[in-house]
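Write out the bound-state structure for adenosine monophosphate.
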Amino acid sequence: MSISAYDPDNIFAKIIKGEIPSVKLYEDDDTLAFMDVMPQAPGHLLVIPKQGSRNLLDADPAVLAKLIPVVQKLAVAAQEAFDADGVYVAQFNEPAAGQTVFHLHFHVIPRHDGLPLKPHVGGMENIDVLKANAAKIIAAL
Ligand code: AMP
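---
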């Protein structure tokens, strides 16, 4: 199967460029973390590299080397902020695997024993709830 090229106008590229809003958690020269607008559990966040790649399959390993420590940092902060029993980290490659936005991203979701996740790409969360949850994570960073 042939894989499509990276589209520089995808929605996460627009978030990086500031063309559409996001509830930001962390930013450095190479990486951005922000709240997922359709959280599968409170505190669901996304970590993305600023350099464009469609997903993990075409990513530059040097980009991954800078990205994964930030995924770890946000996972630890999310665990602490939500007093979670565990943290789910997920990343999908191509539609067959569940990918819907074609800019590499890692999902970080605090998990609590016995509480199921909401469906992937379900309903939009209220912006004030997202901001309140973001404030908890930022405080734990
Ligand atoms: P995936 O299926 O791994 O490509 O997931 C894409 C994720 O991006 C989903 O969890 C969506 O809820 C989330 N998402 C889509 N658009 C936005 C946006 N503008 N801001 C924040 N999260 C988004």
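---
The chain is about 30% helix and 20% strand.
Residues 61-81 form the longest helix (21 residues).
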